[in-house]
Write a structure and sequence with these properties.
By secondary structure, the first copy, chain A, is mostly helical. The first copy, chain A, has two domains: 126 residues, Four Helix Bundle (Hemerythrin (Met), subunit A) (Up-down Bundle); 92 residues, Helix Hairpins (Orthogonal Bundle), CATH 1.10.287.70. The first copy, chain A, is 66% helix and 0% strand. The first copy, chain A, has 13 helices and no strands. The longest helix of chain A has 25 residues. In chain A, 38% of the residues are buried. About 3% of the residues of chain A have low confidence. Chains in contact: A-B, A-C, A-D, B-C, B-D, C-D. Chains A and C meet through loops of A and loops of C. Chains A, B, C, D: It is a multi-pass membrane protein. Chains A, B, C, D: It comes from Vicingus serpentipes. Chains A, B, C, D: Keywords: Ion channel, Ion transport, Membrane, Potassium, Potassium channel, Potassium transport, Transmembrane, Transmembrane helix, Transport, Voltage-gated channel. Chains A, B, C, D: Pfam families: Ion_trans (PF00520). Chains A, B, C, D: This is Ion transporter.
Chain lengths: 263, 263, 263, 263
Amino acid sequence: MREKLHTIIFEADTKAGKLFDVILLWAILISIVVVMLESVVSISEAYNSEIKIIEWSFTFLFTLEYIARIIAVKKPLKYIFSFYGIIDLLSILPTFLGLFISGTHSLSVIRSIRLLRIFRILKLARYVSAAQTLNQALIASKNKIIVFLFAVMSLVIVLGTLMYLIETPEAGFTSIPRSIYWTIVTLTTVGYGDIAPQTVLGQTLASIIMIIGYAIIAVPTGIVGAEYAKSNTSTISTQACPNCSREGHDDDSEFCKFCGGKL
Amino acid sequence: MREKLHTIIFEADTKAGKLFDVILLWAILISIVVVMLESVVSISEAYNSEIKIIEWSFTFLFTLEYIARIIAVKKPLKYIFSFYGIIDLLSILPTFLGLFISGTHSLSVIRSIRLLRIFRILKLARYVSAAQTLNQALIASKNKIIVFLFAVMSLVIVLGTLMYLIETPEAGFTSIPRSIYWTIVTLTTVGYGDIAPQTVLGQTLASIIMIIGYAIIAVPTGIVGAEYAKSNTSTISTQACPNCSREGHDDDSEFCKFCGGKL
Amino acid sequence: MREKLHTIIFEADTKAGKLFDVILLWAILISIVVVMLESVVSISEAYNSEIKIIEWSFTFLFTLEYIARIIAVKKPLKYIFSFYGIIDLLSILPTFLGLFISGTHSLSVIRSIRLLRIFRILKLARYVSAAQTLNQALIASKNKIIVFLFAVMSLVIVLGTLMYLIETPEAGFTSIPRSIYWTIVTLTTVGYGDIAPQTVLGQTLASIIMIIGYAIIAVPTGIVGAEYAKSNTSTISTQACPNCSREGHDDDSEFCKFCGGKL
Amino acid sequence: MREKLHTIIFEADTKAGKLFDVILLWAILISIVVVMLESVVSISEAYNSEIKIIEWSFTFLFTLEYIARIIAVKKPLKYIFSFYGIIDLLSILPTFLGLFISGTHSLSVIRSIRLLRIFRILKLARYVSAAQTLNQALIASKNKIIVFLFAVMSLVIVLGTLMYLIETPEAGFTSIPRSIYWTIVTLTTVGYGDIAPQTVLGQTLASIIMIIGYAIIAVPTGIVGAEYAKSNTSTISTQACPNCSREGHDDDSEFCKFCGGKL
């Protein structure tokens, strides 16, 4: 009984299991859209009761599903404290909390993270490997990204303070934190325009910051790109020829490309 | 007779065929410019009748061309339901529909897609191969791009809701969909500035979103770049095995990697 | 006599030649700054006569230099119609034209292109090779960039027209050309915010355009990057081992890395 | 005695040394936050004396630390004029200068550069190598970046002047320097929107500038990426020739490429 439940809820290989996952994804999608629409004043005023009913129905269903998941696994605690277990709980909690504290309700959109379960439906080797390669590239370049972020942080604090000293409060540079916010907006090339330098010196420094931002953007791209290219290649070649023991063969190789021996 | 028509309309190797294609491209370009100008109120009021006449002349010509294409091919249905067949039909339909429904007329700019026919005029090996390499790189990285888009979607929904809870409606964050719209505007570094965070907490989260956007932009670039570099290399290996006639060997291969035969 | 002049003006290997080039670069830089400052109303009103005198002095010097260049070369016509010859003429012409037509004077900033002459001073193998590698990568990817620009043009026209039909003139989408302008501003992630979608449907389409822009930016980067990496590598390896005739050696190789034979 | 001090202050291998560095980093972080908060008018008015006390305590501590550093090293002058020595001095100077000159106080945020000392705590081979690889890639591509910046500068001056001639002062293009500022804002895809073209011709040229910016951004990315990938690969080949002990061989090398000896 429990095993059958497990097969349906946690796996997507059987017909019933796949159907369960597809229905679940649609339920998540619809419930997110409902939570979003509720935040639009005009809609929530016109269809107040309908939205309430739909939202509680979904929360009821997701609570049932959460209980079923706990029943289905052999070690419930391990599931409860796993990444998806916590997300599953967090996606039903806000609705219940909304009974006592107002405003927390919108937090139910955290269930959008559950959409990542789509990977199970698409449980095709290619998708999993695609996600893995991506993940691998990001992990491999993690250290370099930390180094990069620290350097950017120092740069942003120093440049932000300089702009605070150069520019006037009238232009929006009222404090150092605000100037740092502006520097990040400029360096990342977002450029809202709510704060913009007015003096000649400020505009000159702003131009330099933009050019720096333009050059800096190349760094993370270069890092991830190179790491990605490397992880991409390394997943292909692992086997060595038993004859000449040379490596570097493609995944679909059946014979050694250097000596012609059977792999 | 039909074969001659086919040579002129569908091919660009003969002098007549190339001339036909060049005239067609200019006709498309001019007709797009006319449709664009018609949408400018001051111009459409001053030259109303002239624009009408030009537009109907082009529609008449393109209709003639469409009929000629149907006559020229042996299997008309296959052409009608092909990519270019549908585009050809869609580029004349809006003008006729404009007789009954107003406003649909502007849709004729869909004929701009026909400009991609320029490839036929430039039917030089290099251009075709350039387009193919590009296409190949995009198809190969399609799965990874889907994975990437799903992760970005979840991120954007969660961050957008957080901003909705942190920021006030006065700053423009009036509903979750609108906050999600703002998050996309910020994450992609577009940054209109029509909606901008006002609170300290909101500006801090915005800064984090920008830095994330800055890091995330590296991912698609890395993916396409690596895929592109790979497809670029694979075009080098053109030799087929004389034994099993399979292709896809590396440049430094001395033996077929599928059957072990000497290359 | 003429040869000596040629050595000084056109070469930078001798001491006099280098001095000439350094003085010339400073003269260009100062004259550009003067033209720029003249365009600032407050400055040009206060120092009107001083700026006039400086500007005419520089023009006189550059005219002398232009005549000296014509005298120094054996085939004056070849120099006059060369890239730098035309730029040299264009940088003195606007000042003279300014006597008859007002407003053309600012065009003298075209002399900023002459700053590229800095390459001659830095005539170090590494700089020249750096520029060449860059140039080579851009030329090699030219075809792919044309293909890319044509596809972007079609996309921008179709999306711009859709936005024109969806959005209201009040939001700034008053005509198709203006909507296309907005689409380019959004797709390139510039995002001024002078025109911004107001309707829900418009903001949804705008979000999609931004995500597309985010994905598209990967394409030129991938193209140039791959091409650059290729040209970077291909400049290294050209020689084949005379013993085993295998290629792929580094530039600094003295012995074949496969068989150990002298290269 | 001095050696013990040196171990604690300059090294992070011992327990005491690591503790010192962690405390120092937290002190730097807190003191930066205090300087930032002081610039916010509402906070500095409410907690004026508290902030003053905290700031002077930190300055006192950092001065002690600076003196300790001078005592700890054998060659004090070498430390004083080293990169970190100057930064250490600059991070305490502004507070003392603030006694005589107002406004210079905020400059103490320069101590944020000291945060880069985090590398010593994380003195793990991987972090150091990550920073080195990054640094190496940037140095190797320095020449190409200079060439790139010169070309961009010429482009920006010429395009900025063109926009000044095309657009009206009402749209914000009041002088050439200001137009150049706008061109940089647009070319780097920052796009504040404080200055935006109004005429049809101006918007057309702006569109072209954006597309150019879109294409240009590929260049630094390509440069750093390729350089990074290269430096990344060269770190793989660590074996030295047993014969001539020169390094830099490829992974697939079987013979030394400099002397031909067997590896």
